[in-house]
Amino acid sequence: MANNLPDAMPADFMAALAHLDTKDRLGLDEMKLLVLLETSGEPLYQKLASLAPEGEATELLLTNGREEIAHAQRLKRAIEISTGEPFELPSLDENPYAEPPPFTELTPELLAGFVAGETNGDAGYQKWADHEPNPEIAELLRQNGREETRHGERVARVAKILGH
Ligand SMILES: [Fe+2]
Ligand SMILES: [Fe+2]
Fold this sequence. Notes:
Shape: globular
Number of helices: 5
Bound molecules: fe (ii) ion
Oligomer: single chain
Order of helices and strands: HHHHH
CATH superfamily: Ferritin, core subunit, four-helix bundle
CATH class: Mainly Alpha
Strand content: under 5%
């Protein structure tokens, strides 16, 4: 197996999230798993954007998607700091979580689920940062976390645009 993939890959996106949620601190394998979840965030938000009215709502969702890639880039730096070796982000072809669920509509429940997921995402990153002994890695985790809260705010704005 390529060394940019984790040894443990739970069956689906939600199982992977639940697995990471049980960890106080991210080891190398957990950071690699989180890279897969973050890079899958771009096609996921692109899928949501494809269901949104054109204009501000689409832009907000695509911005979130681009920032998920930036989160993966920060995790790449964290892995490289931790190992002292170059780390290449896996392609979407190699990513078992890359295919978004077959959503057909931006329902209030779906968007509320994303807001909650992003808020939890921030809490998770802050917890991992709290347990991370390397201050540089901890700061990368905190930056990702703060942006997850902004993602939730953008999704809440989309819900408002849709009149939810
Ligand atoms: Fe993210
Ligand atoms: Fe996010």
